[in-house]
Every structure is written in C-alpha cells, then in structure tokens.
Amino acid sequence: MFNKIVKQALLGIFIMSATFVNAQILNVSNETIIHDGKERSAVKVTIAPGSKDVKKSFKDFMDDQFDVKVEGIGFLKNKKVVYTESTVIPPISTKPMELFAKVVENGAQTNMYVFGQVGYNNPITPTSMWTEYNAMKDLTVDFLNRLLPNYYQDIVEDQRDEVADLEDDRDDMRKKMDKNKDKIAELQKENRELERKIAETKVKLEQSIEALGEKKETLKKVNTKLDGANNRQ
User: How many whole angstroms separate alpha carbon 38 and alpha carbon 100?
Assistant: First the structure.
C-alpha cells in the first residue's frame, strides 16, 4: 500500500512538473522596461527558479548554444542585468548586437526580461525590428525549454530521495517493531514461566507453613513433657 502511494505521488509530481513547464513556456509576454534611463521592449517570463540560478543557466545556455559569452554573473559577480558584448547572435541578427537579460526576484518567483539592441543603440522592438524581436522571443523560449525541465527534474530527484529516505525509515521502524515483538514474546514466555514457578512456590510455602506449625506443636509437647519431668525430680 505504501509503495503504491509513493508511486502515485511521484507520478503526480512528474505530471505537475510537465504541466507547469508547458504553462510557463506559453506565458511569454511583451513588456516595456527602463534600462539605463531608456525604454526597452522586452520579452518577459515569470518562472520558479531563483534569480542567480536563472542567470547562471542563461550564461551556460548562450555559451553552449552560440559560443557567446555573457557578462555580469560568475565569480564574485551577480548583477541584476547580465549582457553580452557586441557580437553576432545568429538566431537573432547577422549584425553585431548586444543581448540583455534583467533577472529579478518577485516574491517566490523570478521575472526575466530579455531585450537587445543591434549596432549602436538601435533597440530591438516588436515594431521597428519585428523579425529580430520574434527571434529573440524564440531564443527565450528555447532557453526555458532547457532550464525548466532540468529545474523540475532536480525537484523530482530530490523528492525521490526523500521518498527513499522515508522508505528506509519505515523499514528500520518495522525491523525495530519486529525485534520488540520478539522481545515481548520472550518476556511473555518468561512471565508465564515465572507465574508457574510462583504457583509452585505458593504450594511449597503453604506446605512449609503447615510443617512449621506441626514442628511448633511438637516442640510445645516436648517442652511440656520436659517441664513435667523436671518437676518430679
């Protein structure tokens, strides 16, 4: 029964994770934010992983997929906005560009805003650079497709470890209960033997008390006879 519950719980976690990941990927919106005192059109997503993990994952994603370095996160660095130096990012533009990701925590979730500019201060917007903007949105979705399944897979693994630990604890407690039952059975057997011996001792005690009374009576008679003999002398 317990194993069935565990399997059902793990299945529920997998389904919940998959459903949530899909919902998160679809929840991509357009936002306008202020960066360096200027309005920027950004692709916004709200996700569960922490801001630092998101920035580290984004850095790894850009490096692995496009061989593009992301600055602002790393050893002794954890800026709110991470960015690329001016470089070509093929999915978005064949021209040198800069890509930015503003990552901020919002309660228990994280908001991520992805925006960019081509050349010198030519912001990518849904109107002025429709193709580039949609490519930037697709890149963001691709990043989420890499980040979120791994994130929830880790949660599932942690949950599986917790279930395994609980199963071990349950098995240990069952073994201890079995040992206690064995001890109880031994003690009950010992108690039954003691009860038998107590009953035997009770009979012997009654017999000894009766014999003691008889000896006392005999002693009394002997003393009486001795007293009579002494008086006749």
Answer: 14
Contact 58, 43 (CB under 8 A): no
**Helix, strand, coil share of the chain (percent; to 5):** 60, 25, 10
**What would the mean pLDDT of 92-120 be, rounded to a whole number?**
95
CA distance 22 to 16: 10
Three-class secondary structure of residue 135 per DSSP? helix
Tokens 């519950």 — which residue? 5
Contact (Cβ atoms closer than 8 angstroms) between residue 73 and residue 80: no
9 bridge partner residues: none
Q: Are 83 and 70 within 8 A, CB to CB? A: yes
Report the pLDDT value the prediction gives residue 14, as an integer from 0 to 100: 46
- Sign for the pseudo-dihedral over CA of 72, 67, 132, 140: negative
Q: Give, as one character, the DSSP assignment of residue 38.
A: E
Q: Whole-prediction pTM value?
A: 0.64
Instruction: Take residue 110 and report the two structure tokens written for it.
Output: 């994280």
Stretch (H or E) spanning 50:
none
- More confident of the two residues 152 and 72: 72
3-state secondary structure (DSSP) of residue 96: strand
